[in-house]
Amino acid sequence: MNFMSQKSKMEDMEKKGRHGERRTKGGLITMPFIFANEVCEKLAVVGFSTNMISYLTEQLHLPLTKAANTITNYNGTASLTPLLGAFISDAYAGRFWTITVASIIWQLGMTSLTLSAVLPRLRPPPCTAEHQVCQEADGGQLAVLYVSLLLAAIGSGGIRPCVVAFGADQFDETNPKEKTRTWTFFNWYYFVMGVSILVAVTVLVYIQDTIGWGWGLGVPTMAMFFSVITFVVGYPLYRNLDPVGSPFTRLLQVCVAAFKKRHLRMVSDSNLLYQNDELDAPISVAGSLLHSHELKFLDKAAIVTEEDDIKSSQAPNLWRLNTVHRVEELKSVIRMGPIWAAGIILITAYAQQNTFSLQQAKTMDRRVVKSFQIPAGSMTVFTMSSMLLTIALYDRILIRVARRFTGLDRGITFLQRMWIGFVISILATLIAGFMEVKRKQAAADHGMTNTPHSTIPMSVFWLVPQYSLHGIAEAFMSIGHLEFFYDQAPESMKSTGSALFWTAIAIGNYVSTLLVSLVHKYSAGPDGSNWLPNDNLNKGKLERFYWLITVMQVVNLIYYSFCAKFYTFKPIQIQMKKVNPSEEEGIQLSSRV
To answer: Are 547 and 430 within 8 A, CB to CB?
Structure first.
């Protein structure tokens, strides 16, 4: 196969200065600039979304279920827009410029949100009396909120799928010395992200609860401004890969070509299928995808007929004839689908931390000492702490131990890592249900069932197990999910692969919204009882809601186990670079795990 053009293109992308001088691009030196952008984005997003339920119910006076659905809808939209950002990045703008422009849009959204928290006209008057009927935010005030959240969601859509892919781009997978750094990068990416989230749910939430929302939102807004400048300053150091056209167009071309040739008989030898290294060079810089035996009906798109006229010097009509590499791109995307879908329910379970779990915490004794109590929004500090600890132990200890038994550089496959996360998440929601039973019993024992704003004499630390288990589950499942998408996505669709990770988060949040709405509607009794009441959690049946999610996760685990067992890793032929002049370049066949 013709790998020289691919190697030349890779080196041209890696080693070109602003004035044409040759300079090594990428590597660890770029990480501070890239991580700075991600840290500030997470500071603001998490610092607000974690405590957003308090802002919506206490500042804008929204009903609990409406506020909960606003949060999950925002989280869902902010996780769905990465598909658009990934498409623009892969097809037209490239990752650097997509991140830069998206950060500016995000900055506008957070500035608007900060102003809405500072200016009295943009929120309803405060409630002063305990039993006063609070005035809910009017249409204009909600419009400002929703526009601000929309801008922030659009900005996140350009940052989220591109930052992780852009960071991984800084390590050349065709270089044996840098190859293992890619999967280590994912662990440290999530670790740095976790640290920023930890700061958000402690420092920022404390500022919001004690000083005010103006400073609570203004601080991360200012931090993001400086991070944009820092990210742009690092431009000369980055390894920038050029966009290679719309990946969705290529996938559609394969579908159309396969449909047009649906009546043809399959060739007896896969070597007879059409291949064109020169045509595929821009989309297979790191390696070419090899023919696989699944989804054979798509192979018809690569069958050569007389009408295709491939003898001419011009490129073939890609709406009639595609290369094996392009057919395998579509197969890779289709194979990822079932694994992608399995992550949705876990996000639905995780989403309850920022809604109902937070409301549980608000009713409990949150004192650490007599003079200080934990803000309810800061309870996710236990989620983040357990996640960070798990990531550190996984990267430094578990990988080395597992490597002795499996022989894999990464210890276990990302599919096995995800399975462990699913199991731990089931335990988290199961325990959450029992903790809610205990909390309501404590309220009943002290005659507080009908006083929702009273503090139940039960320590909030009883909720630590469910928060911590969610953090451990995320360390296994979410990082494994992210690794899976980046590794198994076609080379020219790395941003799109990362966007699929966020899309699963989006749909998981939307499923949470739908589930909350359905349970609230159909669990309502004629006497006013409800599993998820708007005004008094002590009279609800929140534990049944948690156990419903537990049952859904058990079914999902069975489904995932079946999908993982029969999953086929993409076969790729990698051209490995020589590390020093005495070594020869070689070809490596890999089914990446």
So the answer is: yes
Residue 250: which of 315, 316, 326 has the closest Cα?
326
In 3D space, the residue among 495, 435, 487 whose CA is nearest the CA of residue 461 turns out to be: 435
Contacts of 548 (CB under 8 A, 6+ apart): 515, 519
Asked if 185 contacts 171 with a C-beta cutoff of 8 angstroms, the reply is yes
* Residue partners of 337: CB distance under 8 A and separation at least 6: none
Rounded Cα distance between 379 and 366, Å, is 10
DSSP character at residue 493: G
Q: With contact defined as beta carbons under 8 Å apart, do 589 and 290 qualify?
A: yes
In angstroms, rounded to a whole number, what is the distance separating the alpha carbons of residues 521 and 564? 36
332: Cβ contacts below 8 Å, ≥ 6 apart:
289, 488, 489, 490, 570
Tokens coding 506: 């989006």
Give the predicted TM-score (pTM) of the model. Answer: 0.74
Question: Token pair of 406, please?
Answer: 């499996």
Burial class (CB in 10 A: 0-12, 13-18, 19+), 133: exposed
The string of pLDDT tens digits covering residues 396-421 is 888 888 888 887 777 788 899 999 99
